[in-house]
Design brief:
The protein is of the alpha+beta class. The chain contains seven helices and 15 strands. Strands 5, 6, 7, 8, 9, 10, 11, 12, 13, 14 and 15 form an eleven-stranded mixed beta sheet that branches. Helix 1 crosses helix 2.
């Protein structure tokens, strides 16, 4: 871990510029540092900071954890695994993303074996499941346009806190930025925000939890997590939008991208609820 105290000379620098200056000998790019910051690798005055553009001030105490390539390959860090490839051809690669790894780190890891692959869409760090990557610029442009035009059909599985009484439902509102939590933006209902639509249906229930299948019609940041929280059924393990009792000691939120249908093809990723079962929830 690197630790520094900001001097008057460096006051006003962006966080990414400051760290790059301090680590000149490491030859890190601004992009690498930005990704590390967004992955909770930095704190200012003992508080996690995820905004690379934040201006540092004289006297700020900065801590920065950066994993080298060797460290990233350690057994405790999820990396590229050929067995998690769901499908690939000359134009796309579909990967079953594990939880606890951000998509940018995963993209970099995949590129070590498939150099041309680039993300078509995003999944939250703790969300597992179907992730689509394009292998050339033409395909990337076509697929991102289909997502923007709502032509991609997505299905998610979510385990929520409490027993949902209705069998199915719909949430439709406008979402916008509402604050922050541990350096991450919080989203919520906002009359000036962007339209967000989620359909859901009940799959099964346990003693005090319910498994839902969700069909987001739009792709707003944290959409399903926000919508289920607004229904008073937050996703188990969700630190940002869940009640304290919904955490259950889980190390991730239980949201899984189960399937994706696009260009007439359907891709599925089996859910992995190991954390859920290991906690003895039944």
């Amino acid at each position: 871990m690197h630790e520094w105290i900001v001097t008057k000379e460096d006051t006003g620098l962006s966080l990414v510029a400051y760290i790059r200056k301090q680590l000149q000998s490491e030859n890190l790019s601004s992009r690498q540092i930005k990704r590390a910051i967004e992955s909770n690798a930095c704190s200012i005055n003992q508080c996690c900071e995820r905004f690379a553009s934040r201006k540092v001030q004289s006297g700020d105490s900065i801590q920065f954890k950066f994993q080298t390539h060797t460290q990233k390959q350690s057994k405790n860090t999820p990396t590229y695994d050929a067995k998690r490839i769901i499908f690939h051809d000359t134009s796309i690669l579909v990967y079953n993303k594990p939880a606890k790894i951000d998509v940018y780190s995963l993209e970099s890891s995949i590129q070590t074996h498939h150099p041309s692959c680039r993300l078509v869409h995003r999944l939250d760090k703790d969300t597992s499941g179907v992730l689509l990557l394009a292998k050339d610029e033409k395909t990337l442009k076509q697929l991102t346009q289909q997502f923007a035009q709502r032509k991609a059909k997505k299905e998610y599985l979510a385990v929520v806190d409490g027993i949902v009484k209705k069998q199915k439902g719909k949430v439709m509102n406008k979402l916008g930025k509402r604050g922050s939590y541990q350096g991450q933006t919080l989203w919520g209902e906002d009359k000036n925000g962007k339209e967000a639509i989620t359909y859901w249906e009940k799959v099964k229930e346990g003693s005090d939890w319910t498994l839902l299948r969700c069909y987001p019609q739009t792709g707003r940041t944290h959409q399903i997590r926000v919508h289920l929280s607004q229904l008073a059924y937050p996703i188990l393990g969700d630190m940002q939008y869940g009640r304290q009792q919904a955490l259950r000691g889980l190390e991730r939120h239980l949201l899984h991208a189960a399937s994706l249908e696009i260009n007439g093809m359907r891709f599925e990723a089996p859910s992995d609820w190991e954390d859920f079962h290991h906690k003895g929830l039944s």
